[in-house]
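does this look right to u?? zinc ion version
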Amino acid sequence: MAEAPKTPVERKTLDQREQMSELERLRHSCAHIMATAVLRIWPDAMLDIGPPTKEGFYYDFDLPSHRLSPEDFPKIEAEMQKVVKENQVFEKSIKTRDEARAYFEVRNQKYKVERLADIPEREAISFFQNGEFVDLCAGPHVMRTGNVKAFKLLTVASAYFRGNEKNPQLQRIYGTAFPNKTELEAWLAAQEEAKRRDHRKIGKEMQLFTFDDDVGPGLPLWMPKGAVLIEELEKLAKETEFRAGYVRVRTPHLAKESMYKTSGHLPYYAESMFPPMELREETAGGERVVEKYYLKAMNCPHHHKIFGSVPRSYRDLPLRLAEYGTCYRYEQSGELMGLMRVRSMQMNDAHIYCTPEQFASEFKAVNEMYLHYFKIFGFEKYQMRFSTHDPKRLGEKFVDEPELWKKTEDMVRNVLQESGINFVEIPNEAAFYGPKIDVQVWSVTGREFTIATNQVDFAVPRRFGLVYKTRENSEGTPLCIHRAPLGTHERFVAFLIEHYAGNFPLWLAPEQVRVLPIGDPQHEYAHAIVAEMRAKGIRAEIDASGDKIGAKIRNAEKDKVHTMFIIGQKEQDAGNVAVRVHGKGDQGAKPKDEVVAQLVADIESRRS
Ligand SMILES: [Zn+2]
Ligand SMILES: [Zn+2]
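got this back:
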């Protein structure tokens, strides 16, 4: 049984409940219907909670008499169908705390008794009843069980009560519900497609990356074909950043504890870092720790040190320090997921140090870089989520600089508006030291993905004592823009695999061309073409096996090779190649020189 994430669900406030969407009400109501059915089938089931989720709903049960599995779904769904048909009303009643406790104690519902304590004193304790089923719940629901017209149970998982390993283990059933069957079917089809495109599955089939127990969980090993993807992305980033006036730096993978104290990562971020490496020294009494080193979880502090290593003047700004820096984060093992969540990652990082006057144009250029990349990768839908501060929480959740907050947020908002960028503003979600912009993109199949986060930082440069000499010969503190448009290689490649279903555009394809001689007499010509293409930088291979041409084509298609050259005697005599493109089929015979020149041009322009 899979394990559910160990993060406890925070109880919704009454405000949040009122804001629950129609769909969330529907799904939460469906959770009640599922619990009704489970209790009918297994009357000893003890209930915990059943909130809506982003994709549906779940309900947690303690079910001593039975271990749930997907084989139970038809039976549970059939019972749910009956509950729907009975068209029961969701009826609300208010109880006193003592009444509520007594009600659940008599029925041996110990989790409900514990959950009672979560309800703040000022909140009324409400029960919702549909048919014979009664739940402790603040709502809201749909009117009747009959309103739930399309649902499906999806998976089971184990889940600790309140997400805590020390508590009893419960069984969770995940399901989903939609307003109608058509929407449910469409969602299920999209799920199937997502499964087909799963980067873990394709990554294995194409031999892009692997994990090994001896290396450690969450530490990907890039195989030759995966390394090609990475090299190409780095090449793209380096070219783009060079044109945009960035300079490259290189920094070590670790640093002393003192630096992370300056940056504030320690102690606040310690849980997300690998434990320190301790350098020890023999003493008369035994040993003592002389120094602690940490693997870096972020590149910023190292870059700040480079900024601060020489005196800076306004003439040096903006200074744009770029590095594909490798970072290490100690993600919980339950949270690791293929390349999407890992413990080592290479980030398309850069820090732009600028004066307040330069901020707008620098930030604008960063946005333009994003749009440039979106075009190359064919991301048609995107949104920037601009997180701002809450003036009421200055000095607590947000650094206490009211004027700087206002000024920077205004600048960010203006630039976003001026550049015609699609964005939404989210109050109270900024980082401690400045506003942040999360960039969301959608794949061709509609999968949403946070590609990267930009942050405007007006507090940390001060912590590091970073200064520059202003035009007026006084001391100024630079603003710092953190940006990483291509995110980390790990997450970005995972997303690209799913976006393209492994059928990479020519410029990215690990194997761009495979030459397939029909018989032995064409081998020499085929080898010569491969050598010529390699000399021109094209990743070309030959299938020199004794297979029949049909099998060679099938293998190349299976390997998702972008372009195939099929060479028979006729092609060889005419100096032609018969071109076949993966997923597009036969393109006919063409002069070899012309085809190769076209490939070189297409690769160069990163045309997809
Ligand atoms: Zn409810
Ligand atoms: Zn940074």
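The pocket of zinc ion (ligand 2) is lined by residues 298, 300, 351, 482 (CB under 6 Å). idk if thats expected tbh
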